[in-house]
Amino acid sequence: MGRREFLRATAGVGAALALPALAGCGNDGDALTFFFQANPAEADGRRRVIDEFARSHPDIRVRTVLSGPDPMQQMSTFCAGGKCPDVLMAWEQTYAGLAERGVLLDLNIMLDRDPAFAAELEAEGIASLYDTFAFEGGQYALPEQWSGNFLFYNRTLFDEAGLRPPARWEDAWSFAEFRDTSSALTERDRSGEIAQWGFVDTWVPYYSAGLFAINNGAEWASPRTAPERSAFSGDAFAEGVQFYADLANRYHVAPTPADQQSISAMDLFTQGRAALALGGHWRYRTFSDADDLDFDVTALPSGSAIRGAQSNIGTTGLAISAGSRHKEQAWEFLKFAAGPAGQALIAETGLFVPVLESAVRSAGFAEAHSDIGNLDILIEGPAHSAPLPVTAEWARIDALMDRYIGPVLRGATPATSLANRLAPEADEVLRNR
């Protein structure tokens, strides 16, 4: 498949869950079918958007099609069998393969016919998120949420240590400051065992290492869309990955891969045994529900090559099947869900970070995150996000990253090895696509 299951979680998706059928949907063959994946918390937000759409569009019936654990395989099976859902949830790193195979409709067709809505998106939207779903001249999805990564921090532990994290992306810690802060917050018990970690990672480690490289002035690949070469051979990439690996293996402020076989990063943070946790907004509800956890958010650290820090784009979108018999109805649903009405609802639920300025800066979004002091980390996150490459070959690049960055994170080989191992193989994949 085009994306590993855990990476899908970075876009705010988790295990599938049965969503009660909407009134009037049933098994009506004329209903608009909507394929998506959601964890229990996200299902509430989805249900609210669909219910409101049904109320404002009583002539359009919506039938939900819930994904299993492998949505890409499921979509491929549906579409190959002539039963492609009308509206499809799209992930930023897998949609290109579907677009290349002609599964997805180029939404420029609909946008050209709807200039008022197109102008609204241009005025309120965040260009980098829309560009994420632009591939080979087409626009294949409209973004619906931002789910890039940042740092959660335990306010109690920071207050006790007399430390104050940055409140804005522009004021990010340097790598050295981040290391020293994590070290100050790492505590050992009398036996010498670590009782409190300075930093834990709840994302995908080899992507997190790459994100540290991006914050050291590196890129993933060039150009961004349909790249012809990777940037894995650069010094900036190796240095960023090495710093991330050293947090566990050299500085001992984070669990090693071996440690993580027996302890959960999520449990460490929710139980107050870790001061900082890398993750995205999809972790917010879990942390909010944790007993006795007082937390806030802050920016990732950055190397000396850049000013301020960056997240990753991290977004999901909504697409229309090229073979849909209900393209007009599907377009109305996309306009609602990805437009001002649906985005306002998403903001009020607090489940996602919306992608329109009016929604992310709304009172509803602020009220849904009333426990967050550094709200600008979320509001400004999309504008401070570095793009991941858009290519139909990303599944193969993903596998190579796992293969070659993994040993670096285990301390078995230095990050300088990536120039001679990961880079040439990734470049060959991109050249021969």
Automatic annotation (TrEMBL):
The keyword Hydrolase does not apply. Keywords: Signal. It comes from the Bacteria. Residues 1-23 form the signal peptide. InterPro entries: Bact_solute-bd_prot1 (IPR050490), SBP (IPR006059), TAT_signal (IPR006311). This is ABC transporter.
